[in-house]
Write a structure and sequence with these properties.
Number of helices: 2
Structural class: mainly alpha
Mean pLDDT: 85
Largest sheet: none
Strand content: under 5%
Shape: rod-shaped
Distance between the termini: 80 Å
């Protein structure tokens, strides 16, 4: 039972630290563009395919 005297405040402190980190990430704009990286990855892939297709067509004719 005496362990709870230390564990409960430690859990509350860790929770507050996590909440503070989350709020900091919101304010710094970490979640402002959720789809940007995903779409950039898709667009880059499609662009690379077009380049490879054009290279194959120019080599093989």
């Amino acid at each position: 039972m005496s362990h709870l005297v230390f564990l409960i405040p430690a859990a509350l402190l860790l929770g507050l630290i996590g909440l503070a980190a989350f709020l900091w990430s919101l304010r710094s704009g970490q979640y402002s563009d959720m789809d940007g990286a995903a779409w950039r990855a898709i667009e880059d892939d499609e662009q690379d395919r077009r380049i490879r297709r054009a290279e194959r067509e120019s080599e093989g004719g």
